[in-house]
Automatic annotation (TrEMBL):
GO terms for cellular component: nucleus. Pfam families: Peptidase_C65. Its EC number is 3.4.19.12. This is ubiquitinyl hydrolase 1. The record marks I178, Y192, D194, Y218, Y223 as: Interacts with free ubiquitin. GO terms for molecular function: cysteine-type deubiquitinase activity; ubiquitin binding. One of its GO terms (biological process) is proteolysis. The active site is at D62, C65, H222.
């Protein structure tokens, strides 16, 4: 038992070191970069993307990247579109002060670098991730009859939310995206990079047929933000 415990502790320590290295090397949300930057990582795989998009904004690969990428892209779009901001109900009344302050910055139309700086403050950024996770969980549970058909392994929606949605650092899939898009009435386009098709990407819009305001790139296990 002692050896197993020591082994577990060694594994956890190694995981902590890996997370610290990731944190040092990657901001929570990066500056906007030329999409050609992707060539440094995927020399053969992004020709299709370059025909459709010009820029990418990277997020830290920490398991929270979908929520962080969506959160930044959504608030950035609202920052640039005053009319949409007036129509939009972000719905954060009564939540933590850090999150209220972030939304108030958007409502005041602060410069984009100020929004980016806020997203790179772990306390502010992580509060938003927690809030979006809880919104997603709430939507899944309100519409459990619809969403339970997508679950495998006999789990209930409540169990799924407790295990795969609400905890920090849990990765996201189609079901999370559908629920968050529905919860906030925001259209999300995800470009799925498929390495087996000569660099082609497969776009999916959530919900289908809507006009997306947020564009994300999905590569296995990770989401970044795309711009035309």
């Amino acid at each position: 038992g002692v050896n197993c415990l020591a082994y577990d502790e060694a594994i956890m320590a190694q995981q902590d070191r890996i997370q610290q290295e990731i944190a040092v090397q990657n901001p929570l949300v990066s500056e906007r970069l030329e999409l050609a930057e992707l060539y440094k990582e995927y020399a053969e795989d992004d020709h299709d993307l370059l025909q459709k998009y010009s820029y990418i904004r990277k997020t830290r690969p920490d398991g929270n990247c979908f929520y962080r990428a969506f959160g930044f892209a959504h608030l950035e779009a609202l920052l640039e579109d005053g009319q949409e901001l007036q129509r939009c109900d972000i719905g954060v009344t009564g939540v933590c002060p850090q999150l209220m302050e972030l939304i108030e910055r958007v409502e005041r139309r602060v410069p984009l670098p100020e929004l980016l700086a806020a997203f790179n403050e772990p306390a502010t950024s992580d509060y938003l991730v927690v809030y979006l996770r809880l919104l997603t969980s709430g939507c899944l549970q309100r519409h459990r009859r619809f969403f339970e058909q997508f679950l495998e392994g006999g789990r209930s929606i409540k169990e799924f939310c407790q295990q795969e949605v609400e905890p920090m650092c849990k990765e996201s899939d189609h079901i999370h995206i559908i629920a968050l898009a529905r919860a906030l009435h925001v259209s999300i386009l995800v470009e799925y990079m498929d390495r087996g098709e000569g660099g082609a990407t497969n776009p999916h819009v959530f919900p289908e047929g809507s006009q997306p305001r947020v564009c994300l790139l999905y590569r296995p296990g990770h989401y970044d933000i795309l711009y035309k």
